[in-house]
């Protein structure tokens, strides 16, 4: 052992009894029995060791020393008379001959008890993240992250991928979120942008003749936080393959990821190749989501023909989706809570009824269905004890609301949800184009660099809304880990694809000059994907919040409360980059 110690605090065993050792670490706590007897716990990165203070001299060295100070302790290892089987070092203790204070904690009170830091409010934890990370439970998530990233690197290298880093300062590029802009000192009025993804660079590498590329890539997007999304900065296992098809990408991912999930995961089983493949259209129709949790075996059914004219106002003229849960014994209170949660998450209401023990329709909207009971029972194959959840609206609204309802019903019904595995699937055949919800105009559905299925012929002859793209999403346990695609490497097809959404060739050349020009020199077909590292680690660790697996996360409003970022800068710094601040005053 190095670093001014002979052993770490998780290393000593009974075999070292009688040896003289030096340990260093944090003063975790001490149980003081008398003025010349105390039991001090020394903690470092590796574990804890009990130090027995048996003299007034040694006790005096700790007078005025607060918890979390750093100490160096030299002493003799001996067998403990009262062993602690729950600790790796529980058979021994160290009797000190010398105690040195290496770094003094000047505060008598800490913001929180280190070993219970996860019980503190999030703002306090983030402000004192360096103390939060001293908690072995919190630290273990960062250690796990390191091991997973190392394993991913190793497995990608075994598949002959080269790790190549791409630029951080680049040009602004539309990736679907706001850019972080960096003003240029040498070029007044111009800006760099932090990359939302290495998308263009990795495609240019394929055009440059590299065959297989990957990196653990930092990405920057100015977007709001969610439980599974960190604002500002995140990391991807970014990869691209030349002369590759969709199947080539699937083959690599299906070989790389499951063993990592099974090795390090909370659950020890993960889907084996090939993963289930579901078209986007089928995913929405069967699961109400393009990121379905396949651990839940419930599926949506369409009951529009049976119920649309039943006299219940919200169903009139709408698409109606149903989810049947057999032997559902939830109380009315639980059902009402599920419906309320669905409305909060989807913005739309959920409805229900059930089949009682006598075979009658009861509860919820049952009174509107009595005149068509037999048709309803037959359409849904109902039997006594069945519960039926319902949603209504325009097709996509009805599907999405039903998808949320399906999730909550699956959670409430243990019979229909597995909880001890990682279920992967591919969502494929995404539409190339869609009508934008905000603009009401034709837009790219996913990545504008994707190859349309059918190539130029499809773009020339089909209704844009009927064109599918070689785009795919990787989903695990209801979490979207990544989007990927076979890339559009043909400049003529690329120009035509953009023309369909109203952007001409000059726009393509102006926004993507390097990629467009490179493709004009003969580009290989290529495809790739970029699973999110943060989301993968979150799933593997079994955490609900992505902030638990990031060493120094921002809060929900994209602030680093520990470092005080974002922060103001002085006038000279602004002048250097030719920027003047003009913030409108708030009205009182």
How does this model look, in words?
The chain is α+β, with helices and mostly antiparallel strands and 588 residues long. The protein has three domains: 90 residues, OB fold (Dihydrolipoamide Acetyltransferase, E2P); 206 residues, BirA Bifunctional Protein, domain 2 (2-Layer Sandwich), CATH 3.30.930; 121 residues, Gyrase A, domain 2 (2-Layer Sandwich), CATH 3.30.1360. It has 17 helices and 22 strands. The strands form five sheets. It has an eight-stranded mixed β-sheet, with helices on both faces. Strands 3-2-1-4-5 form a five-stranded antiparallel β-sheet. A hairpin with a 5-residue loop joins β14 and β15. α14 crosses α15. The longest helix has 23 residues. It is globular and about 90 Å long. The relative contact order is 0.11. The mean pLDDT is 94. This is Aspartate--tRNA ligase. Homodimer.
CATH homologous superfamily of the largest domain - what is it?
A: Bira Bifunctional Protein, Domain 2
Task: Identify the overall geometry.
Answer: globular
Distance between the termini: 63 Å
The largest sheet, given as strand count, sense and whether it forms a barrel, is:
8 strands, mixed
Radius of gyration: 30 Å
Number of beta-strand segments: 22
Low-pLDDT stretches are none
Based on the structure given, which CATH architecture of the largest domain is correct? Answer: 2-Layer Sandwich
Helix coverage percent: 25-40%
Quaternary structure annotation? single chain
Class from secondary-structure proportions? alpha+beta
**CATH class descriptor name of the largest domain:** Alpha Beta
Mean pLDDT across residues: 94
Sequence of strands across the biggest β-sheet: 6-9-10-22-21-20-17-11
CATH fold node name of the largest domain: BirA Bifunctional Protein, domain 2
**Strand-residue fraction?**
15-25%
Number of domains: 3
Helical run tally: 17
Enzyme class: ligase
Subunit structure: Homodimer.
Function: Catalyzes the attachment of L-aspartate to tRNA(Asp) in a two-step reaction: L-aspartate is first activated by ATP to form Asp-AMP and then transferred to the acceptor end of tRNA(Asp).
Family: Belongs to the class-II aminoacyl-tRNA synthetase family. Type 1 subfamily.
